[in-house]
Amino acid sequence: MKWYQLDVEKVEQKLHVSAAKGLTEKQVQERRKKFGWNILEAQKQTPRWLIFLKQFQDFMVIVLLAATLIAGLLGEYIDAIAIMIIVFVNGFIGYFQEQKAEKSLEKLKELSAPLATVLRDGKWEKISSREVVVGDVIRVKSGDRVPADMRIIQSNSLEMEESALTGESLPVMKQTRAITRDGVQAQDQVNMGFMGTLVTRGTGVGIAVGTGMNTVMGQIASLMTTTKKVTTPLERKLAELGKILIVVAVLLTALVVVLGVIQGNPLYDMFLAGVSLAVAAIPEGLPAIVTVALSLGVQRMIKKKAIVRKLSAVETLGTASVICSDKTGTMTENQMTVKQLYLNGQHLYVTGDGYQIHGDFFIDGKKTDRRFPNLESMLLYGMLCNNANLMIKKGKYVIDGDPTDGAILVAARKLGLKAIDREKFCIVKELPFDSGRKRMSVVVEDENRMRFVITKGAPDVLIPRCNYYVDAHGRKVLQDGKRKELEQAVLSMTKKALRTIAICMRPLKKDEPLENAFLEKDLTFIGLYGMIDPPRKEVRAAIEECRRAGIKTVMITGDHVHTARAIAKQLHLLPEDGLVLEGHQLDRMTKDELEKSIDDTFVFARVTPEHKLKIVQAFQSKGHIVAMTGDGVNDAPAIKASDIGIGMGINGTDVTKEASSLVLMDDNFATIKAAIQEGRNIYENIRKFIRYILASNVGEILVMLFAMILALPLPLVPVQILWVNLVTDGLPAMALGLEKPEGDVMNRPPRDPKEGVFARGLGSKIISRGILIGLVTLFAFLAAYQNNPENLVYAQTMAFSTLVMAQLIHVFDCRSEKGIFSRNPFENIYLVMAVIISILLLLIVIYWKPLQPIFHTISLPIWDWLFILAISAIPSVLFGFKK
Ligand code: ADP
Ligand code: MG
């Protein structure tokens, strides 16, 4: 079907839809049944059995399995089977962990799926893009991803960037007229929008003509490269470290084996022990557990309304030293209310709160109404030059659309002006608002076919474009004196933290061409709106907390400098000697000048999105790690350049969300703080289990090494080593990943992004605890062995139990870098459970008769446990007393 050749009515007919009403729910259901969901077919997934098999691809595990096979052939059935089982259980655990990480990432994808605005049963609603069906009437605005292939039926300066399809990166102007030519290529079908391309400018409406695989994008989807799994910096560091640790572990193991053989142990025994030790000591699972910990952290962040789009962001969050945040909507409620008007040289005050439509107009303390000259026309203009809708939801008035526009509608409603009479006023053309232009305009045609332009926007942008003004007596030429007066009025409002909007108009001559370049000039100034947008309650405390955590908060806004300053003061964001910079100052500053003053600057006002990039780079050149928020399509470059790009879940555009690594579900600044706190905590937790696992491994290797040096028999048999690796190293380590933040995570400066895995004393802790664990285990073995040299199984059981207990006590030491006594041991219920389960499993393999021959154990008398507990506490408690 060549949709571009059809008139709009033809398209409506063919698809059985009216552009004014949209599809009915019934039609949607039928079409979904017929054509399916609007998705590009999922890429092939790795089959489950392959994920399971992958758990065994590790070299040492393969060696171990081979060794077990040999053991089996040599008649050591029990050992062989026990080892096999342990290896398989280990594989299963790895498999489940991977599945879990995968699932939570899946869920993330769902949460950050793009939305589409469609007209159904006469009502505009936001749905997930996958629910769009052929015939849906779709509304798009700048920053959106086009959800389906569509024939465009309305275009207000609509431009799309279609490089994903055509390779052409210049945006294409979209129009609605049918194209009569034949054989037109996608890039020249200017009345079509294509799935997956970007709206870079303007607004528009289209009718979906193709969805899912039946789109131009769908046809080339199979050609698209699959996305590779990206690893985080920490995962990479660990993978590298892992290689070194493997070499060290293998060398030490080899040493153990050689020494053991020299001391007269049988070669075969030593070989199997060596391989088991290597399997246990090589922390091959570390990167995987880190991934699991990161993805668990991601889930906790979701609960706090922060969606992580890139796993690496979890780590980077902990290093952030500057947050550059939008003011409007992020630090403030984004619930605007017009409180003041400036008209005919007088200030009017408006009562009423929020979007509720009751309120009155006062002048000099006296109520006034429609009889006040120009008031009605000013409010009417405000309604005409407007993109929002006032609706009732659950008995309350709410705004659909831009809150600034919404406030203006509510103000008009307070004077009794209801919906625009579309018979009387017809919008012929619209120049949409964007943060760069800071204004919006419409061309209106009234019932007498007279046309006029209405422009509203930032007063400092519009006043210079005015040559006339109106007062109670009519239109006059705007002289310099009066201009000053207007600017004074703006100042007096902005100083009260009011967001100001000027409204202007110009009558058009008959048949005057509607050239964009001329429409917004030679205007007549009508009046000013002053609206409040109260700061969010929780933001002040969040800024304070960030300050204590060594993180600087910077406000960035397109709003007037005085408004910005006033709000910054209310939030305690701007210190007495803090600087406020304006966009025009930024333009004039060189890079060096900006870098010099950036550390003292806390507010950037009247900036455009282009300035944001400059700000990010200036901070970065001073060594800062920058988090930057953004919502509009033009914010994407700055977001990409920042270390942590933050998109807005409610008011953000698809483009910025896609560019960002974190999305705030509630657009709230306080959520950024919560995410940083969580990010810091996750990193600390990862450090905790790295410390736990590596110290355990050091202990395991050392006890074997010491024994061989002292010409003793093997203190631990292979199954015991593997059991320790599986049970003790596995469960408690996972539980450490679930630790709640320690009280002081937000009371210290951000982590240095360049710091290594073993920084801040982690390395020395691993070595010292590891050595002690090895020593006490050896001591337990030695004590039992010397009293009773014939009973080797008894001595081995003592060593085994001591090693396990020493680790299970040490895990509590790992919870804090300040020692075992600094935290309540029962705080982390998962850890307590993991330890109890591990102890129960230990008691089972020691006391349950059928398992004793398999694990080479023997029942221990009760007083032995007192001894075991006493010495196994030493490695952890010893350092706890040191202060
Ligand atoms: P921010 O989001 O940081 O407050 P914006 O770029 O949205 O900054 O707004 C900048 C200025 O543009 C505002 O101070 C206001 O004067 C003007 N403005 C904002 N929204 C609108 C709108 N919908 N129509 C016309 N002008 C607007
Ligand atoms: Mg804005």
From TrEMBL:
Q: Which UniProt keywords apply?
A: ATP-binding, Calcium, Calcium transport, Cell membrane, Ion transport, Magnesium, Membrane, Nucleotide-binding, Phosphoprotein, Translocase, Transmembrane, Transmembrane helix, Transport
Outline the extent of the Cation-transporting P-type ATPase N-terminal domain: 2-76
Gene3D superfamilies recorded for this chain? Calcium-transporting ATPase, cytoplasmic domain N, Calcium-transporting ATPase, cytoplasmic transduction domain A, Calcium-transporting ATPase, transmembrane domain, HAD superfamily/HAD-like
Which reaction does this enzyme catalyse, per its entry?
Ca(2+)(in) + ATP + H2O = Ca(2+)(out) + ADP + phosphate + H(+)
Origin organism lineage: Bacteria, Bacillati, Bacillota, Bacilli, Bacillales
Which chain regions cross the lipid bilayer?
56-74, 244-264, 270-296, 689-714, 720-738, 766-785, 791-809, 829-848, 860-881
Molecular function (GO) terms for this protein are: ATP binding; ATP hydrolysis activity; P-type calcium transporter activity; P-type sodium:potassium-exchanging transporter activity
Major place of localization?
membrane
**Member of which family?**
Belongs to the cation transport ATPase (P-type) (TC 3.A.3) family. Type IIA subfamily.
Q: What is this protein's record name? A: P-type Ca(2+) transporter
CC annotations in GO: plasma membrane
The protein's superkingdom reads: Bacteria
Q: Name one GO biological process term.
A: intracellular sodium ion homeostasis
Q: Which cell locations does it reside in?
A: Cell membrane
User: Which InterPro entries does the record cross-reference, listed alphabetically?
Assistant: ATPase_P-typ_cation-transptr_C (IPR006068), ATPase_P-typ_cation-transptr_N (IPR004014), ATPase_P-typ_cyto_dom_N (IPR023299), ATPase_P-typ_P_site (IPR018303), ATPase_P-typ_TM_dom_sf (IPR023298), ATPase_P-typ_transduc_dom_A_sf (IPR008250), ATPase_P-type_domA (IPR059000), Cation_transp_ATPase_P-type (IPR050510)
